[in-house]
Specification:
Elements (H helix, E strand, L loop, with lengths): L12 E18 L2 E15 L15 H8 L20 E7 L9
Antiparallel strand pairs: 1-2, 1-3
Length: about 110
């Protein structure tokens, strides 16, 4: 799987953000983790990202793995397995760039 990492994004970027509207953490561990079943609300916003941000291109053969890992409501996501813990009302620190225009990030 190929990920492209850019060292900085210094321009405002239109993105979609995820706000947790519901979450339920399991009482029993699954694969060593207490899973978190979340429901999110997606809203558009503009953000400027810090220099150590990562951008993952979806224009690659294994893009479905990226979506599986980063979409908060996905059954196997980093949010679902509490690698990225979230609470109700919180914004998930994952953002979706939706324009088809490539980012000028180097």
């Amino acid at each position: 799987m190929t990920f492209r990492c850019y060292s900085s994004v210094k321009i405002p970027v239109p993105v979609e953000s995820y706000k947790v509207t519901e979450n339920k953490v399991s009482a029993v561990q699954e694969n060593g983790h207490y899973t978190n079943d979340v429901i999110t609300e997606v809203t558009p916003k503009t953000m400027t990202f810090p220099a150590d941000s990562y951008i993952f291109s979806m224009a690659q053969p294994n893009a479905n793995y990226i979506a599986l890992a980063f979409e908060p409501e996905s059954v196997d996501s980093y949010v679902s397995f509490n690698f990225i813990p979230v609470e109700k009302g919180a914004e998930v620190p994952i953002y979706r760039y939706i324009l088809e225009k490539p980012l000028d990030a180097k």
